[in-house]
Structures are given as structure tokens and as C-alpha cells.
Amino acid sequence: MTPPDSPDDLQLPPSLELLWGRREPGSRGPRRGLTLERIVEAGMRVAQAEGVGALSMARIAKELGVGTMSLYRYVASKDELLTTMVDAGLGSPPPLVAGEDWRAGLMRWAVGVRAAYQGNPWSLRIPISGPPLGPNNVAWLDNALAALTDTPLTEQEKLSCVLLVSGFVRNDVTLALDFAEASGGEPQMPGYGQLLAKLISADEMPSLHRAIVSGSLDDPDDPDAEFMFGMGRILDGIEALMASKESAAGRGRAPRRAKR
User: Fold this and answer.
1) Predicted pLDDT of residue 8
2) Cβ atoms 92, 84 nearer than 8 A
3) Which CATH code is given to the segment(s) 102-188+221-251?
């Protein structure tokens, strides 16, 4: 297997230099009191108030009261700015809690990520283009892995568990956002079960019909309860994986036969 390149041999892309504060602004044009932080904050204000679709370099320049070209001293493109905005919107992860077990740690992490997305829903409309590389994103990844430190999982399994939890949280908030936008903030599809009862019969779809008859489809959704239910089942699965590894380790492996 080819060993990975030394970090010293890698050239950071300009976008990463920007994210990590390792790139100086260009020298063209007057400074006008601008900073990268001010540009990012203006972009976030526009995205929060008007949506990602309203974002453009010209719109952000207008928000700041400067010329559009002055922004390019700090960011090379709109895509670069969006990447920086998403990382800034995520913010810092919640601090580790002394003495918490892995399950409490991952739940704390998931609740924190969910709150960050809920506070910056526009960030969910920006497609993911790669693994976490911004300073805040990387800090969140480290925070989640720290919760799994004293577990029997391999490093690859820990990363896979974090990816599983992260995907669930992102999907949970995205679905809630989609429903809210589609319904104008009103509860989605009142009387859903009653509506389905007019469309299907017990003979056609018996399993769904039982759910309709139970009234479960007409109960108002509790997003927090659904989130906690889903997280609970994911954590149960991770716990089962840990238990199976500990059981296998306890049994030990059968000795290999010596080769003749």
C-alpha cells in the first residue's frame, strides 16, 4: 500500500488557506475598512433574511455599501465565500463534559449540530462538496471522535459512526425545513390519516390501514420527539456493535494451525 504523502509535500488550495486564515487579502484597490469577517457576516445576514438564492457578490457588496470588485480582495469567488459562510455558521462545538459516557457525548454533539443548523437553515441549501475541512467543521469532527475515545471501535468505525449521526441530523433538519417552506409555516397536511382513509382500503394496503385506524397519522408531529427517537435507535445500533466486538474479543480467536 502506498504510504500517504507527508503534510509538508501538500499544497493547500487557496480556499483552505482562506478558511484557516493563512491567506493575506489582495492588494488591488482601496481597503475601504473591509475585512473577511465583515463580508462573511453580511453574506450570512442576506442568506438568513432572503435565502441562498438571493446571494451574489453584488448583493453582499450592497449590504456593505461598497463596490462589488472590492470583495475580491478577500474572496476569489462566490463559491469560496459560501464555503467560508457555512463554516462560520456552524460555529464552535459544545465543550466536552467531564465524565460523560460515549452515548451522552454523541447525543450532546447531535443536539448541538441540530441547533446550529436550525439557527442557520440557509446553510442546508448549500450542497456538500467534500469532507469537513473548515476549522469549525474539523473541530466538530474532533469533538465527536473524542466522545468515542474509550470504546472498542476502530478509528474507521468511529468515523463511520460520526458520519451516520451527522447524516441523520442533517436530514432531520432539512425535512423540517422543507415542510415549513412548503406549508408557509403551517402544520403540514392536517388530517393526513383521514385523507388516506378515503384513498385506500384495508384489502389494498392492510399494514398502512392499521396505522390509519390507530389514529397515529393524525397525531400532531413533535419534531423533537421524532429526533430523539431516531437518535436513540442509532445509538442503540452503535451500542450493539460495541457489544459484539467486546464479545468477540472475550471469546478470543482460535489458534492458527501451523503450516506444514
Assistant:
1) 63
2) no
3) 1.10.357.10
